[in-house]
């Protein structure tokens, strides 16, 4: 497998993992009945609550010296919440898609957003560049 294909494959896998984590955070945060007037803000609050809870669990287990347990427990908790609260995640996804459709209604805005998304994604999956590597090579 060429380096470019391997890089794209690992980038796609990392993107799927990141989306699953974000969805799990929304699922965890959705156990709290937070209904704000702006639905997008409600989703952001749920995501923040889920991230805070999982971060707290990571820190608590790591401080207790239970890193191997944390490596299984936190992703397991996230997976369980995704299974149990999938309707809340699906609803949040539909609301985000609706908001993006409204924002990107104009053709030029849509193309600009796609180009920006591709550039940011490629930059995110690219290997890190060391300052001395850039300078000497």
Question: How many DSSP H or I helices?
Answer: 6
Total beta strands = 0
Give start-end ranges of low-pLDDT stretches: none
Rg on CA atoms, Å: 19 Å
- Secondary structure category: mainly alpha
Q: Kindly state the mean pLDDT as a whole number?
A: 88
Shape: flat
How are helices and strands ordered from N to C?
A: HHHHHH
- The helical percent reads over 70%
Largest sheet: none
How much of the sequence lies in strands comes to under 5%
Separation, N- and C-terminal Cα atoms:
25 Å
Describe the structure.
The relative contact order is 0.12. The chain contains 6 helices and no strands. Helix 1 crosses helix 2. The protein is mainly α. The model has no long low-confidence stretch (mean pLDDT 88). It is 82% helix and 0% strand. The longest helix is centred in the N-terminal third of the chain and has 27 residues, at 3-29.
Summarize the structure.
This protein is mainly α. It has helices at residues 3-29, 39-63, 67-84, 86-103, 107-125, 131-136.
SSE diagram, text form:
Layout: H1 3-29, H2 39-63, H3 67-84, H4 86-103, H5 107-125, H6 131-136
Helix pairs in contact: 1-2, 1-3, 1-4, 1-5, 2-3
What are the key terms here?
137 residues
């Amino acid at each position: 497998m060429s380096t470019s294909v391997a890089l794209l494959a690992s980038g796609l896998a990392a993107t799927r993992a990141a989306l699953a984590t974000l969805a799990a955070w929304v699922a965890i945060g959705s156990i709290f009945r937070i209904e704000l007037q702006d639905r997008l803000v409600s989703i952001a609050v749920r995501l923040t609550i889920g991230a805070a809870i999982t971060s707290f669990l990571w820190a608590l287990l790591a401080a207790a010296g239970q890193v191997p347990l944390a490596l299984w427990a936190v992703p397991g908790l996230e997976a369980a919440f995704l299974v149990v609260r999938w309707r809340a995640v699906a609803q949040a996804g539909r609301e985000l898609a609706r908001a993006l459709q409204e924002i990107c209604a104009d053709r030029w805005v849509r193309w600009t957003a796609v180009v920006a998304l591709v550039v940011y994604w490629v930059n995110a999956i690219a290997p890190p560049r060391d300052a001395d590597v850039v300078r000497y090579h």
